[in-house]
Amino acid sequence: MNERLTITALGPHIGAQIDNLELSRPLNDAQFEQLWHALIRHQVLFLREQPLTPVQQRVLAARFGDLHIHPVYPHAEDVEEIIVLDTHNGNPPDNDNWHTDVTFIATPPAGAILAAKQVPEQGGDTLWASGIAAFEALSPPLRRLLSGLQAEHSFTKSFPEHKHRDTPEQHARWQQAAVNHPPLLHPVVRTHPVSGKQALFVNEGFTTRIVDLAPKESEALLSFLFAHINKPEFQVRWRWRANDVAIWDNRVTQHYANADYLPTRRIMHRATILGDKPFYRAD
C-alpha cells in the first residue's frame, strides 16, 4: 500500500489539499506523521470525499490530543466531543466573523477538524488567515511594539447573553458558561510551540482590549490589527462539498464562515483539540 500522501499547496502562506488518504480508517504512524508535519507547515489542510461518522471524527481528532467539550454548542448524539453547527433561518450563523476558536480558555485549542455534512449549492465558503504571515508583514518597529504585550479575551464578546435566551435551559447553560469562563489574558504575539514562528494572536471574535495600553490606544491598535489580518494576501478560501474535511492549526490561524447562503441549510461537525498555554518567546 502506498502510504505517501499527496500534498498540494494552495498558496504561498497558508493552505494545502491532501490526497491519497482515507480518514475513516485509523491512521498508521507514517500517515499521521506526514499529516502532522503538513499541518505545521501549511496551517490548514483540506481533504475531499471523506465521509466520517461522529465516532470516526472523534477517533481521528484524538490522535492529535485531548478533545474540548464546548459549553454552549449542541453536540452529536452520544458523542459530546463533536459539536454540531446547524445553520438555517431559525438558527442563524454566529461564525461569520474573523475568530480563533475558544481563545476564552487558558489553554486554547491547538487545532480543529471540521466535517461538512450538508452544504448549500452556492455560497457558504470558509476563509482562513495566517497569523504568521500577518505578523511577518508588519514593519519591524510595530512587531517590536506588539511583542510581549498582553490582550484580554472574553467568552461573552462572541457569545452575548441575548442570543442564548430561547429556552430557560439554554439561558442556564450560558449563565454557567459565563461564570466558568471569566476574561483572561493571552500574548498579543504568540510563539508557535513546534515551529517557533511568531504569529498575531488577537481576534475580533474574542479579544476585547490590550491591557498594557490606554483604552483609546488599545481600540485603535486592535482595529488596525483586525483589519490587517483580513488582507487577502494572508488567506486561503475553501469551497465546500459534502463530506469535505478541514484540519487547521488553531494556534496561528483565524477563520471566517461566510454566511451568504441563507436561507439554505448548512450542517457541519467540529472536533476541537485542546492545546497548551500560549506564550511569547523572543527570537
TrEMBL record:
> Per the record's keyword annotation, is Nucleotidyltransferase included, yes or no?
no
Q: Which GO terms describe its biological process?
A: sulfur compound metabolic process
Tell me the keywords, alphabetical order. Answer: Dioxygenase, Iron, Metal-binding, Oxidoreductase
* Keyword Isomerase (UniProt): no
**TauD/TfdA-like domain sequence ranges:** 7-272
* Listed InterPro entries: AtsK-like, TauD-like_sf, TauD/TfdA-like
CC per GO annotation: cytoplasm
Q: Which Gene3D superfamilies match?
A: Clavaminate synthase-like
Q: Name one GO molecular function term.
A: metal ion binding
- Which residues span the membrane? none
Which leading EC class covers this enzyme? oxidoreductase
Concerning NCBIfam families, the annotation shows:
PRK09553.1 (NF007104)
Query: What is this protein identified as?
Result: Alpha-ketoglutarate-dependent taurine dioxygenase
- Gene encoding it? tauD
